[in-house]
């Protein structure tokens, strides 16, 4: 079973993504900020990480920098999911090593398709 970590501080987004990915046969892990995500990543190696940019404590950009430094997590595909939709934000996210940058509002169905594409 594929594993996905969803990191977002908006409960509605987390709930809809968790429900959808479970229906698509993913094992789902949830973190509400970057610090929580890094704690989960000590024990779990997800195939895909969906990462919000603007979060309390540790933001998405800082979280991705930690992920990229960890040898065990090199295989993880990272998708930024953010309301920050300026060209500069998107470029920063991709420059840090994200595989994809999706702006909010977004289509859950399309996001699931993008996750499947990334994994193949």
From TrEMBL:
Return one GO MF term: DNA binding
Entries under PROSITE patterns matching the protein = RESPONSE_REGULATORY (PS50110)
The cross-references to InterPro entries, in alphabetical order and at most eight, read: Bact_response_regulator (IPR050595), CheY-like_superfamily (IPR011006), Sig_transdc_resp-reg_receiver (IPR001789)
Superkingdom of the source? Bacteria
Q: Which Pfam family, just one, is annotated for this protein?
A: Response_reg
- Please, one GO biological process term? phosphorelay signal transduction system
Question: According to the UniProt entry, which residues carry 4-aspartylphosphate?
Answer: 52
Q: Which residues form the Response regulatory domain?
A: 3-119
Alphabetic keyword roster: DNA-binding, Phosphoprotein, Transcription, Transcription regulation, Two-component regulatory system
What CDD domains does the record tag this protein with? REC_OmpR
Q: What protein name is recorded for this chain? A: Response regulator receiver domain-containing protein
Q: Which organism is it from?
A: Flavobacterium weaverense
